[in-house]
Amino acid sequence: MVQLFYVSDILVNPNQWDNNRECIKAKVLINNIERNKINNKVSETKRIILQAFENLKQSSEYITSENLTKYVDRLINSDNNKTFNLVEDNNFFQLFQKFIDSSKVSTNRLQSYKVVIGKLKRFELYYRLSIKNNFILSLNTFSVDILDLFEQYLFNEVSIMEKFPEIYKEVPKTQLPKPKGQNAVTCILTILRTFFNWSIKNNHTNNYPFAQFKLKQEVYGTPFYLTIEERNTLYNYDFSYSNELEIQRDIFIFQCVIGCRVSDLYSLTKNNIINGAIEYIALKKKNDPVTLRVPLNNIAKEIIDKYKDYKGEKLFPFISQPKYNFDIKKVLKQAGIDRVVTILNPLTRLQEQKPLYEVASTHTARKTFIGNLYKQVEDPNLISSLTGHSEGSKAFARYRDIDEEMKKELVDLLN
Fold it and tell me: How far apart, in whole angstroms, are the C-alpha atoms of residue 102 and residue 62?
């Protein structure tokens, strides 16, 4: 192994330096402009050192600290590698909108991007009101410290709204903010990281605050879903006293036996029934279209036949998705599907025990399809051909828990 060294002209008080994050310590009292200037210069120098090292490897020269220094200095002085000026030459939010407009992702993902840009705008206003009155978000000065503050803002958005209601008048949203767990915050920060990667790729900045920022992993509990017996109990339950609940029960059961996402379910029409199967292109994959074909089992055929005279364009008489979610809980409770399941609280990340009907949703139908199939055939690629999961999706890892019956059989071997 060869150790190489490069001495830069960046001067920092050792007491102010964070060795782990390789930036100015977050709690050090220092002018923000100076802090950003140093942090950005460190990031840019590291990038140039790596580029110089790659150039050196491809040359015929020996790899020494002296040669590395020559390459680095040559790149720093090159017109093609001058660092971006700290004065923002591109409006942050205009660029973010350009990023959104150029993104080839699903409609739901695009909506998530728009939610993030709204949160960033409100964060900027909050920063002005609480920390620095002339603050603006900028690609080139967006530091790891600002990332830390944005993360804390996301966790505390509810209390901030109460303290600074003017923020939400200036940048309104359709719904009031709700408490967020780590998964939700990580999802937002992941989108922001994607924006920075796009910005660097398109030469809008050299600044990459995520280089010193540790993005926490999303954590999910073991999936809960209906057993085949529970599904059949629900399907055979007599809802003749309520036509509305009977319809939503039927739609939920149909979703359980074809495994589609609710967005795809609501897009289905009678034209999607082709030669004994449902065929559709998943909306989430519309920019990488693959036709999914799910053969109809007897239950699915019975439900389709039941609503064959429905005169709407859609396959079934759908209601709003929030109301559908509500009715799923209602029909499960009515049918006595009250098995206690363990869930991961998204806010506390602690396990909780709840009756299944209380935590069921549209996605429970998809999980019911996947979970029961996975018990029979542990082949993610075969199942993904029916569900539209990407090849190698990590989602299937959560279905590998051995069920209670199999566990009992294993323990009995010790008798």
Answer: 43
> What is the 8-class DSSP label of residue 86?
S
Predicted local distance difference test score (pLDDT) of residue 77: 66
Our CA dihedral for 405, 409, 414, 415, rounded to 10 degrees, sits at 100
Q: Alpha-carbon distance 46 to 72, whole Å? A: 10
Which residue in 243, 234, 241, 201 sits closest to 368, CA to CA? 234
Give one DSSP letter per residue of 337-390, joined into a string.
---EEEEE-TTT--EEEEEHHHH--HHHHHHHHHHHHHHH---HHHHHHHH-PP
* Intra-chain end-to-end CA distance of the chain, in Å: 56
pTM of the model: 0.57
CA 124 to CA 209: how far, in whole Å?
A: 17
Count of residues in the chain? 415
What are the C-alpha distances in Å from 14 to residues 30, 36, 313, 393? 14, 17, 69, 45
For the sheet containing 277-281, what is the strand order? 273-274, 277-281, 291-295
Angle between helices 243-258 and 228-236 (to 10 degrees): 150
Those residues of the chain that have pLDDT short of 50 are 79-90, 402, 415
Query: What residues have CB less than 8 Å from 289, skipping those under 6 apart?
Result: 281
Q: Check residue 231 and give its pLDDT.
A: 94
Picking from 182, 171, 95, 83, the residue whose alpha carbon sits closest to that of residue 137 is 95
pLDDT at 80: 45
Closest of 86, 77, 104 to residue 284, by C-alpha: 104
Spell out the domains of the chain, with CATH numbers in brackets. Answer: 14-81 (no CATH), 92-212 (no CATH), 228-412 (1.10.443.10)
